[in-house]
UniProtKB/TrEMBL annotation:
It comes from Aeropyrum camini SY1 = JCM 12091. It comes from the Archaea. Residues 3-122, 152-249 form the VOC domain. InterPro entries: Glyas_Bleomycin-R_OHBP_Dase (IPR029068), Glyas_Fos-R_dOase_dom (IPR004360), VOC_core (IPR037523). This is Glyoxalase.
Length: 249
């Protein structure tokens, strides 16, 4: 059982180049998509879904806009990260970073649309707080590389204009717990005792358009669906501080 509890049930990404996006996600998720009206869907572990919604006219959000910072996929073994790293190299995808966060080890990249993507593995040992330090190469070298692995959506990380607004929404409206408030310029939220299911930061929204919400049909995260394990939030459709639709089951 993956430790995140499958709280994030679905995420919908708007993409302009469907074939390029499909090649990327098929590779890193070790999964084949199915056609759906207007795009493709990846049916991941325990029924969680990534939907690629095709819109060739979608515009890229301007610098400093609110929206997706990265979508994060969790995998079932550290060896899966080694496999993902090899696939990124084969595709010529940029590796933005490789980090040890105490709770997790993670790789960071961009999809063909410029959306941030994290792939990570939850460690077994407990940690008191989130840290960021370089991932030692030997960790992946010693992990092996499985022929197949399982992946699902672990968390969503967003760019917002104001952390206070983010806390009022995620903690006050959706009933999430603030799991980390000591990390500069960011807050982390979760249901239960997971390190985070949602994060919000202001690292890029102090410049450019200063956190303005992009148009509805912009490239990036259009919607995500969460299922609180203990019924902490009323089912319904909400709009988060980044301007993204949130569906609560």
């Amino acid at each position: 059982m993956m430790r995140h509890g499958f709280v994030i049930r679905k995420a919908i990404l708007t993409v302009r180049r469907l074939e390029a996006a499909a090649r990327f996600y098929s590779s890193i998720l070790d999964s084949k998509p199915e056609p759906v009206p207007g795009g493709l869907v990846y049916r991941l572990e325990a029924g969680s879904e990534l939907v690629l919604q095709h819109n060739p006219q979608a515009e890229k959000p301007p610098p400093g806009a609110s929206g997706l910072y990265h979508i994060a996929f969790t995998v079932d073994s550290p060896g899966a990260l080694r496999a993902v790293l090899g696939k990124l190299r084969e595709m010529g995808s940029l590796l933005l970073g490789a980090s040890d966060h105490c709770f997790t080890i993670a790789l960071y990249t961009l999809d063909p649309e410029g959306n941030g993507v994290e792939v990570y593995w939850d460690k077994d040992e407990p940690c008191r707080r989130l840290v960021t330090k370089p991932l030692e190469p030997r960790v992946l070298a010693e992990a092996g590389s499985p022929m197949e692995y399982r992946a699902s959506i672990g968390h969503i990380h967003l760019k917002v204009a104001d952390l206070g607004e983010a806390e009022r929404f995620y903690a006050g409206v959706l009933g999430m717990v603030v799991t980390e408030r000591g990390y500069p310029g960011a807050l982390f939220f979760a249901y239960g005792d997971y390190h985070h299911h949602v994060a919000a930061n202001i690292w890029e929204t102090a410049w450019g358009v200063r956190g303005a919400r992009p148009e509805r049909y912009a490239v990036g995260l259009r919607s995500y669906t969460m299922k609180p394990p203990g019924g902490e939030a009323e089912p319904g459709v909400y709009r988060d501080p980044a301007g993204v639709e949130v569906v609560i089951l």
